[in-house]
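Review the following:
>
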Amino acid sequence: MLVLFETPAGFALFKVLDEGKLSKVEDLWKEFSNSDTARKVVKLKAFDKFDNTADALEATTKIIDGSTTKSLRKFLKTHCEGEKLAVADSKLGNAIKEKLKIDCVHNNGVMELMRGVRSQLEELIGGLGSQDLAPMSLGLSHSLSRYKLKFSPDKVDTMVVHAIGVLDDLDKELNRLAMSLREIYGWHFPELAKIVNDNVVYAKAVKLMGFRENAAKLDFSEILPEEVEEEVKEAAKISMGSEMDEYDMANIMELCNRALSLAEYRPQLYDYLKSRMNAVAPNLTALVGELVGARLIAHAGSLMNLAKQAGSTVQILGAEKALFRALKTKHATPKYGLIYHASLVGQAAPKLKGKISRSLAAKAALAIRCDALGDGGQDNSVGLENRLKLEARLRSLKGEELGRSAGSVKGKPKIEVYDKDRKKGTYNPSTDAVLEQTPKSVGEETVEMKTKIDEEAPATEEKKALSLDEKKKKKKSKDVEATEVTNGDADGNKKEKKKAAEAGQTDAVEDGVKKKSKRKRPSELEEEATETESHTSKRKKKNQVKE
C-alpha cells in the first residue's frame, strides 16, 4: 500500500512496510513517537516537487475541489501500478479511481497514519528542513487565501454597494442645499424661485447675479433662455424682496458653491457606478439598469447573497415592511419592491405591473446567478436575450388588454363579414324596388293635402260619436252590475245574521240544558222538537217568498 501525502513543497509517496499495524488504530500513534520507529512503518518511495508558487496553488486548489492536476496524474501513473493508494480525502480518491483506475483507501487507520507522517515529515523526507518548509507553507497559505477570496478588480461588488449609497446620499444633500438656498435667497428675490425651477440652474443664476440690482447689467444667455432672462430682469426691477448686506450675500455665495460642486461630482460618480455594474453584473444591468441593479445588490449585501435568493424574493426585495404588515393584517401582499423602478415595469399599464414584475424578477434571478457564478470575462448576452423576451411578453399582454376592451366579452374582437362583390364594386341595382315618381309642383302638393284633410274630417267625427255612445253603454252596464252585486251582498249578509242568531239560540238552549241538574221529561223534549220544526219551516217559507 502506498500513501499520498501533500506538502507545501510537493507530493510525496510513502510505502507502508507493515499494513497489519493499520488495524490497530488506537496504538498507531506510538509508532511515530520518534523517527526510528516511524521509518519501520513507512518509507519514502517518490517525491514530486512543485516548480513555483503558482503550481503549488493550482495543485492545492484542485485537491480542495476534489480533482487532480496533470502533473499529479503522471506522477501516480509511474509509481502506483498495481498498488493500493491511501488518500486523505474521499473525493480525491474517487477522482483518482475514475481517471487512473487505481484503488484508493480512506478510513480511520489512514487518517491516523497521515497524522503520524505529518509529525515526522522532516525526518522521513530527506533534504527538506524546517527552514525550507516554513516559508513554503506561509507563501502557499497566502496564495490560497487570495484564491478563496477570489480577489479580482472586475468582481468587486463592495465598491458598487458603497457607490450607490454615496449617490443616494448625494441626491439627498443636493435637495437639502437647494431648498435652503431657495429659502434664504427668497427673502431678497422671491420672484426668482417661481421663474427658475431647476435647482442647479437656480444656483448658477444666484451665483452670477448676487444682488438683484445687478440683473439688468448681466448676461444670462449661458444659463437661461432669452425669454426666461427677460422675465428675470423685469422681475428684478419690481421685486418685493427685502434688502441684504454683503456679509449675508457672501454666505449665500458659499452655499451656491457647495451645491454646484456636488452637482458637478454627481455625473462622475454615476459614470463610475455604471462602469462597475457593467463589469460586476452585466446581465443584471442589461435587464433592470444600473441604478436598480446596484440597489438590489446593496440591499442584499453582495452579489453572491443576491444570487442565493429566489425570484419571488427578488421581486419584493425592498418592500419587507409592507410584506410583513400585509401578513399581519391579512391583506394583499405587495407585488413589487425595488424592481418597480425598472424601465420594463414602468412601461406596463397599472393592471399589468404585477405580471411583468413577476416575469422580470424570474429572469433577473437567472441573470444574477450567471453574473455571480459564471466564468470571468462574460458578456451580457443572457440579459439582452431575456430582455427581448420580456418586451415580447409585455407587448402580448398589452395586445390582450386591447382585445378585451375592443372586442366581445370573451376578449375576441368582432370581425365584419367580408363581401367580395362590395369590394369589387359590382352592385346589383335590380335588388332595390324603388317606384319612379314624377316631380310635382308645390301648389299641387298643397291642394292634395287639403282634399285629404277634408275627406278624413267627417270620418273622424263619426268615429268620435260612436266611441262616445259605446262609452255610455259600458258605463250603464257597469252600474247595473254594481247594483246587483250590492243587493246580493245585502241578502247574503241578512242570511248570515239569521244563521248566527239561530246558532246563538241553540247554544243558549244547550247551555241551559247543561245547567239544569235534573233531566227533562220525554213529553217536554217532544214539545221542544215540534216548536223548532215549526220555526224552521216558517223561515224556509219566508226565504222562498223573498226569492
